[in-house]
Amino acid sequence: MQVVIVPTAEQVGRVAAAKVAKVVRDKADAVLGVATGSSPLAIYAELERRATAGELDFSAVRAFALDEYVGIDYAHEQSYHAVIRREVTERLGLNPALVHVPDGAASDIARACADYERMIREAGGVDIQILGIGANGHIGFNEPTSSFASRTRIKTLAPRTRADNARFFDDDLDQVPTHCLTQGLATILDAHRLVLVATGAGKADAVAAMVEGPLSSMCPGSALQLHPDATVVVDEDAAARLQLADYYRHTYAHLPAWQRYED
After folding, report:
1. How many other CB atoms sit within 10 Å of the CB of residue 135?
2. What is the Cα–Cα distance from 12 to 16, expressed in whole angstroms?
3. Which residues participate in catalysis according to the annotation?
4. CA-based, 20 to 30 A from 226: which of 13, 72, 170, 194?
5. 151-210, pLDDT tens digit by residue?
6. Helices (H) and strands (E) in the chain, counts
7. Rounded Cα gap, residues 75 and 84, in angstroms
């Protein structure tokens, strides 16, 4: 696992976006794994800047979202169908027909989950998966005690996750769905590359558990320790609980130029 610590949230987005940009430049029809939430927004802003400047072309890029709420109308502004369309598809110029989100409105949830796994396989797998991490260590909506062998499935959201997401629903907890469909940890680990971003002191405990804690289902993000090409990019506040923070800073500062993510 490569840990990159930078001073600001904006720089977090810039460094992570550079890693995504390289994949898209090298493969015009790359498969992106896209995430919602606040953390990835700086990545999308930087990728949008590059696309607007003519540095990147996303027209042939395919995308798969990590998750979707169950029981929410897709027209709702906080459905992940709507969020991905607004924050990713439209901003980056993706073809909407090539962007996929789990079907949380399906009448047969088990079939919808199996179909989503099949679609990812038929696309050749995810070339690079963008991730955030919850304060309780969840990635996607894989809450604590999720199996490392898990695949796309329905999950009940933890009370802390619902409380954290209430800010997207006018701070009204009653509006936050209680269930979701999410890619499983094994599905996420199948991606060829992973890039996880986290900012702010509220994520410091989760980041420390993910990077330096034991491999444990109590911190689903610790599954990234099993991946051969996982990059974690955090700001100084999110890095505050890392015991080896100085080592990570030293390692990144002394990377050969060809290995650096910023370009």
Report:
1. 16
2. 6
3. 67, 136, 138, 143
4. 13
5. 999 999 888 889 988 988 989 998 889 999 999 999 999 999 999 999 999 999 999 999
6. 9, 10
7. 12
